[in-house]
Amino acid sequence: MKQSLYAEALKPTVYSVSIALEPRRFVQKPDRITLERRADGQLWATDGCDERAVWVRRCFPWSKPTQYISLRDHRENEFALIRELNELDAGSRDALERALTEAGFVMQVTRILGIGEEVEIRNWKVHTRQGRRTFQTRLEDWPRNVPGGGILIRDVAGDLYHVEDPHGLDKKSRELLWAFVD
Question: What is the pTM assigned to this prediction?
Fold first, then answer.
């Protein structure tokens, strides 16, 4: 089991494969990328040759929220990587900031009520600052420590749940959580 986990850790990431396969997509001159919110409600990116609807994903620690923002299409293919938000023109920067705000909504977990497993799915019941929630994660998707502190959980829909202070949770919540954290 440990060997397969080690082998899995050595596989190239989407980020590294993207760099190797599509270096032209990584923004060397951000002024060539324009972003706009269109009537369909989606964020659209144009690089002079191609345009498509994209959604945003931060690639690096939350401590640098304006750096290294991946623009991905509906197939999860990276269209472009924005190295620094400030390198974009004002209109594109505004559109991207609004998209980041929408994408950056993170539920703050205050208590874990239960975690159950079914075939390929883990069911979570939690209390958050936003109210009681239930969500699902894949069995192979584990909660992870984040550089800014706390533990991050991503559900099957891509929503994020953050446990700001795992040690500050009640005893039952800590016991449930620690069963899934390295």
Answer: 0.51
